Structure formats: structure tokens, C-alpha cells
Amino acid sequence: MLIQSRDNPKIKEYIRLRDKRSERESAGAFILEGARLIDDAIRENAGLISAFYTRASAEKFCRTVEALRSLLNDKAYEITEEVSLKMSGTVAPQGIYACASRLDKTPSLDKIVYGEKFLVLNGLADPGNIGTVLRTADAVGISGVYLCGCCDIYNPKTVRSTMGSLFRVPIEDRMTYADAVAALKAAGVSVYASVVDKDAESLRGFNFPPCSAVVIGNEGNGLSDDDVKLCDGRITIKMSGTVESLNAATAAALFLWELSK
């Protein structure tokens, strides 16, 4: 089936999912754009609902489009270049898109294995930061990430910036911060707050217990005193010169590296 109209209901639905968090939440779905991201979704059995591709993208990414056709049958639609430009959220679209069901790969605290590590993100607002943190968590083998009061993990900018790690890292994004910390502690996980405070313990040389979690706070405000009090300890990155703090994603990368040793 060739979709030629930008007003086609399926195209309108895709655009609503792209643009509105409320639509993504009510539909339990989100969008993917680009061959690499869609390849990762296929490889990780991410639950694709539908796909769209131009004739040019079918020639350039023939294996990806063939996989989509095989997986989705009549729910893989060819679209015109004009429709593709309407759907794209990038400067240089590749002409290949998909809709996927909300992921159900969440962290399990029922049986904590010795040495498991977790990350809690509290109030992060920048999609790029969250995507970068998830990529780092994936790289160092973090067991699960809790997103509490953060921007939408299914925001297209966040999804793109994860570079496929979204499909591999267990994620929980529906718990409050207090509930997430309580659940981790109840499972025997020691939880540490990352803070900007010279009196806190230094990350350099800190020995994390076998089962531990680190909390990273909002980019501008960090963690509130009440949030810190819920944790088992406070850790800081001691810095030289006049630097007072680091970008949240950079700080998270340092904490995750030390946590995963």
C-alpha cells in the first residue's frame, strides 16, 4: 500500500505520537525514526506496531525494510517523499519510520544478584542528557535505571539520543522518587546521593557495597535536602580549580564508571 497523502489517518497518528507525550501515554506507543534505531528495535524484539518507508529508503536500507515487511506484513507502508518530510523530526531524514509499543523491560528487585548496580535519575529535564546517561548505563552493564519525575523517556529526542540502549537497559519510569528509593533499599540495595558538597565523601576511591545504586538529580538544582536524606550516604566529585559542578550526564558517567568497577 502506498500512502500519498499527509492527511492519511495513519500519518496523523504517527505525528501525534511524535509531538505529544499525552498521546504516547494514552496509546502506550512511541515512534522511531532512522534505520539504525529501527534495526536495534527489530533485533531486541521491541514490539513494532507499524512502519513507513520511502522507495529511496527501501533501496538504501533494503535489509531493514525487508525485515519490516516480513515482521509487519500489511502494516509496513510505502510513503512518498512529501509524506516523509511531514513525518520527519530530523534535519536530514532517512525516510524510514516505525511505531512501537511501550517497552515492558523493567528492573527486577525480586531476586537481587550479588554485584548488581542501579541508577536513579530524579527530575532530569533534558532529553539529550537522559539519552546519554542510558547509553553509558548500557555500556557499563547497569542492571536497571529508575526515572523519577524526568522528561518523557519516549520523547523522540530522547529515543534518538539513546542510540538503541533504550531497548537493552531495564527501565522503570512510573515510580515516585521516594518509592523507587524505598524499593531499592527494601531489596538490600545501598542507595547513594550524588551531591555538590565538599564535606561529602569523595567518589575517588569510594568503595561501593556489592549491591548499590546512585541517584543523580536535576541539571540545575540537583537533589533537595529531603531527597538526599532518603539515601544511605552522600558522595561528591572533588574538583580542581574554579569548576563548581559538571553536566548531569558527565557526572553520571563518572559515577557509573566507579559504581561498575
Radius of gyration: 20 Å
Query: What would CATH call the class of the largest domain?
Result: Alpha Beta
CATH superfamily name of the largest domain?
Answer: SPOUT methyltransferase, trefoil knot domain
The biggest sheet amounts to:
7 strands, parallel
Q: Please mark out the parts with pLDDT under 50 across 5 or more consecutive residues, or reply none.
A: none
How many distinct folded domains?
A: 2
What's the order of the H and E elements? EHHEHEHHEHEEHEHEHEEEHEH
Percent of residues in β-strands: 15-25%
Please give a structural write-up.
- With about 260 residues, the protein is of the alpha/beta class.
- It has two domains: about 100 residues, Ribosomal protein L30/S12 (60s Ribosomal Protein L30, Chain: A); about 140 residues, Alpha/beta knot, CATH 3.40.1280.
- It is about 40% helix and about 20% strand.
- It contains eleven helices and twelve strands.
- Helix 1 packs across helix 2 and helix 7 runs parallel beside helix 11.
